[in-house]
Amino acid sequence: MKFVVEPGELVEAVNWVARSLSTRPIKPELLGIMIDVDTSITLTGSDLETSTKAILKADIASKGKVLVPGRLLAEIARSLPNKPITFVLDGTRVLVTAGSAKFTLPTLSVNEYPNLPELPETAGLIASDLFTTAVNQVAIAAGKDDSLPTLTGVHIEINKNNITLAATDRYRLAVRELTWQAKDGNIEVNTLVRARTLSDAAKSLTTHSQVTLALSPTGANEKLIGFISELKTMTSRTLDGTFPPFKHLLPSESVAQAVIEVAPFLDSVRRVALVTDKTVPLRLIFSHNSLQLEAGAGEEAQATEELEIVYNGEDINIAFNPTYLTDGLQAIGTPFVQIDFTGASKPAVLSGKHELNGAKDESYKYLLMPMRYTA
Asked: N or C: which end of the chain has fewer CB within 10 A?
């Protein structure tokens, strides 16, 4: 096996494939990146839950297949000088050379490397920038507790040419609706994908204008989801379990509405939140086109700030986790946010507005549970 590759091509491919390597694998071969040199070069990595592949453009002198330590290869690839890189398999070692820099890598057993699942059937296409934005808006609300695996996922509901993404950690709920080009115009599928897997796909599959989504057919023994973008692919097993019903949580009516410019609101939240922690809420007092932000009480550090806003409805005194509120405001992606209230002790819903007096953007909703506080 021998080939020569440009450094930029190698770094991008190796970084992509290394994303799926396990830090604590059940067998040492899963620490490796498979390099398969044939008419083209395919790099593969897997932790048995998620598999990533990249096609590498290179000048191939001879064919072969080898398994090398993946994270070491990634570190070497990033550190090599900006010169053509030569790979040569010499017995049980791989020689990597770029200019005067030379590395010798050990190899792992190719025969012990597991058979990885093939990409499922193509389901449709989605614009890569739309896919990335939607995933980022929803994944922030997914749970981090692996003892509740269903809540660590993003629920994907496909209804013909419409997709709904939803995630919740029980304290907040993010829902994004978007359109795509379904291969089958009558497709109706629900699946649950790890939020971190979906985020990894969204971060790295933006070099091409579109992302292909692939799904196992209904009734398949192994439930898989796949993402394809030009020379990169990712295949992942979906999560078992049923995502909790959520649509009924999004209220259709409200008792008050606030419209606030996002940038100054974010700045105020961050300043006042300096005196809070995970157990201390940020209090928000809405009335008469003004918003009072408060935090801290008694002998503790305290902070207050006031903003002019557009407000309609009954006065509302409510408190939120400042981190969750900040996450939602950052995810909105529009100059203004509309907050709809159903009461001081009930969830509020954040939606975007492109103009102060314009229509509310219904495609993204961020529901936030209030916190209790001592007045």
From this structure: C
Question: Rounded CA gap, 333 and 345, in Å?
Answer: 27
* DSSP classification of residue 16: H
Q: What is the CATH number of domain 250-368?
A: 3.10.150.10
pTM value is 0.91
Task: Please list, residue by residue across 277-314, b when 16 or more beta carbons sit within 10 angstroms of its beta carbon and e when fewer do.
Answer: eeebbbbbbbeeeebebbbbeeeeeebeeebebebeee
* pLDDT for residue 136: 96
Written as one string, the DSSP assignment of 285-354 is EEETTEEEEEE--TTS--EEEEEE-EEEES-EEEEE-HHHHHHHHHHH-SSEEEEEES-TTS-EEEEEES
C-alpha 264/C-alpha 273 separation (Å) is 14
CATH of 121-247, one of 3.20.20.150, 3.30.2350.10, 3.40.470.10, 3.10.150.10: 3.10.150.10
Range 2-106 has CATH code 3.40.50.300? no
Amino acid making up residue 371: M
Residue ranges in the chain whose pLDDT is less than 50:
none
* Extents of the domains making up the chain: 2-106, 121-247, 250-368
Q: Which two tokens stand for residue 201?
A: 């796909």
The closest alpha carbon to 137, from 198, 223, 225, 181, belongs to 198
Cα 294 from Cα 306, distance rounded (Å): 9
d(CA 227, CA 247): 27
The H or E element that residue 181 is part of is strand 181-182
Length of the chain: 375
Report the candidate in 241, 254, 265 with the shortest Cα–Cα distance to residue 320.
265
